[in-house]
Amino acid sequence: MGIMFHDLFSISDLSMKPGIQVPICRMADELGKLWENSLFPDCCLVVAGQEFWAHKAILAACSPVFRAMLVHDMERSRTNRIEIHDLEPQVFKAMMGFIYTGKAPDLQAMADAMLAAAAKYGLEHLKVMSQRALGRDLSVENAAHTLFLAVLQSAEQLKTQALDFITAHGFEVSQTSSWKTMVASYPHLVTEAYSSLASTHHSLLEVPFKDLKQC
């Protein structure tokens, strides 16, 4: 007799039911709790006299620099203690939060320090995040300093962005104290930065080059 009316209703009812919903993965949050609550740590990192407990496996998996420290330095491997001399505690804690969760820290107040930390410890994703934050904050007053940071930390994307900004605002930037400081203290960086653009932006670079020649 074929499919009855109540059978059609049952089939329709089944087709309208939602499929299996996969819950959101909370692994990053769970790893973050390991760091925040110092759960099951196996190494100690010392920053400015403060001790922070962490996990060697996570450090080694996320940072090639930490991995090299733990693999090749027998003293660190034996004592499970790593001295960090080049970071402030606030920057260190923000960096470690990223290592454990992959989530970007608040870069508004520490993007320059975080760029240096990311470059130092081989955290390429965090390095790009820091470049983006600094690039968004480019201004006439900080362009020269940003260019210096980019060259110093081999941050090529930020370097290109800073050069483009300086080229577009050459005269204004050349009048700032940060530009004059860079010309006086790091003339080789200025020469390197502007030689790459001299052929296509000669007229815009005349004033900065005059300042450089006077050093």
TrEMBL record:
InterPro entries: BTB/POZ_dom (IPR000210), SKP1/BTB/POZ_sf (IPR011333)
Domain BTB residues, every copy: 41-103
Superkingdom to which the source organism belongs: Eukaryota
Family annotation (Pfam families): BTB (PF00651)
Listed name of the protein: Speckle-type POZ protein-like
Biological source species: Mesocricetus auratus
Gene: LOC121142145
